[in-house]
Amino acid sequence: MNKPFQTGSRNIIETILVILLLLSLFLALYDVLKVFFTILTFALIFSVSFADVFEKLATLLKGRRKLAAVIYSIVLIGIIAFPLIYFLSVLREHVREAIAWVNQVKANGLPPLPSWIANLPFVGGDISAFWTQLQHSPKDVIANHEDKVKTTLHHLLNSGIGMLGTALQFIVGIIISAFFLSAGEKMLTPVKSAAQYLLGRRDGLSLLRATTQAIKGVSIGVIGTALIASVVSWIGLTIAGVKFALILSALIFFLVLIQLGPLLVWIPLVIWSAVDGYTGMTIFLIIYGIALLIIDALLKPILIARSGGKLPFLVLFLGVVGGLAAWGFTGMFKGAIILAIFYTVFNSWLEGKAKPVAGRRTVQ
Predict the structure, then answer these.
(1) In this predicted model, what pLDDT tens digit does every residue of 250-272 receive, in sequence order?
(2) Which of these, 156, 221, 273, 355, could form a disulfide with 282 (CB 3.0-4.6 Å)?
(3) What is the residue extent of each domain of the chain?
(4) Is 323 within 8 Å of 334 (Cβ atoms)?
(5) Per-residue pLDDT reduced to its tens digit, 40-98
(6) Which residues, at least 6 apart from 44, have a Cβ–Cβ distance to it below 8 Å?
(7) CA–CA distance, 112 with 170 (Å, rounded to integer)
(8) CA 357, CA 359: separation in Å to the nearest integer?
(9) CA 344/CA 256 separation, integer angstroms
(10) Rounded to the nearest 5 degrees, what angle is found at the Cα of 82, between the Cα atoms of 249 and 216?
């Protein structure tokens, strides 16, 4: 009497144990691989974004994919590493100048504030009053603003470390993406098989296409905006007569690419031109910098919308903004991929539900 019930209970318990074992295995796998998620995300971004360029390069090299992967890695790493190395070398020189300036202030006191800064509308009076206090009692002023100074230095240090860490992740991601691209279709075979096995042939391929479109859309938007911003910056810096305009533009490309924006280069330039007394250049750089910020803000969603394929702009936009708020730079791609997958699966489910309803109406 109880044998069927006992057998069924044993099967249920065994199934639950297998599910728990699989969940434990997936959690352990997540703990092992979560350190590499950002790097793997970068590798996925680069491999999808530059797949067409890589295939053309491989064709040009008569099918020598490994050689194409080496050239691809060297070129991309050079594009990222060159402006960063220049930035660090310039920063070192400015640190030396800052130390020399501090020593000079200790010996001779603070120099008088330039008249044009004191005459600035709205803020000139406050700056002039603060400067006067700093000249007469520097220790008291520094003691009153010690927490703010420490906080500012802390943020600057964290930003510098974050930039170096992101650049290193970029470089490792490029190297891994070179392996992905070198393998070609072989690398995608397990992913395609798994997607088709879980969702069916049509829905599995649709899901992969949506994921690819999301990555390409965001990549074109981000990289395209960074490229246009760097070209516009180079034109403005050249007109202003700033030295090393090309290298500074390359640095702006990298900063816009990782979503830090062009102000990290532009504000020091404005301060430098103002301190040296180049009033016309300062005004030009301020106006041009505002235009550059507008381009950075408006161009990105337009490029993402135009290159997102069949995915609606709202889906990609919500994914990009939400992912950026949740996870930072890589979150733009993660958010876009997650919403693209959800949109594709949800539409597929709606189509599957609509077919039986249409069939019943036809029979009636």
Answers:
(1) 778 877 877 777 887 888 888 77
(2) 273
(3) 35-147+159-184, 195-348
(4) yes
(5) 877 877 887 788 888 888 889 888 888 888 898 888 888 777 766 766 666 666 667 76
(6) 177, 180, 215, 333
(7) 45
(8) 5
(9) 30
(10) 70
Which residue shows structure tokens 């959690």? 27
Tell me the C-alpha distance between 118 and 284, whole Å.
19
Mean pLDDT, the chain, as a whole number? 75
Instruction: Yes or no: say if 186 and 288 are a contact pair by the CB < 8 Å rule.
Output: no
Q: CA neighbours within 13 Å on the CB side: how many for 236?
A: 26
Please state, in angstroms and rounded to a whole number, the distance separating the CA atoms of residues 263 and 232: 14
3-state secondary structure the chain: CCHHHHHHHHHHHHHHHHHHHHHHHHHHHHHHHHHHHHHHHHHHHHHHHCHHHHHHHHHHCCCCHHHHHHHHHHHHHHHHHHHHHHHHHHHHHHHHHHHHHHHHHHHHCCCCCCHHHHCCCCCHHHHHHHHHHHHHCHHHHHHHCHHHHHHHHHHHHHHHHHHHHHHHHHHHHHHHHHHHHHHCHHHHHHHHHHHHHHHCHHHHHHHHHHHHHHHHHHHHHHHHHHHHHHHHHHHHHHHHCCCCHHHHHHHHHHHHHCCCCCHHHHHHHHHHHHHCCCHHHHHHHHHHHHHHHHHHHHHHHHHHHHCCCCCCHHHHHHHHHHHHHHHCHHHHHHHHHHHHHHHHHHHHHHHHHHHHHHHHHHHC
The pTM (predicted TM-score) of the whole model is 0.61
CA 356, CA 354: separation in Å to the nearest integer? 6
Cα–Cα distance for residue pair 135/157, rounded to 1 Å = 27
Lookup: tokens for 82 = 């060159």
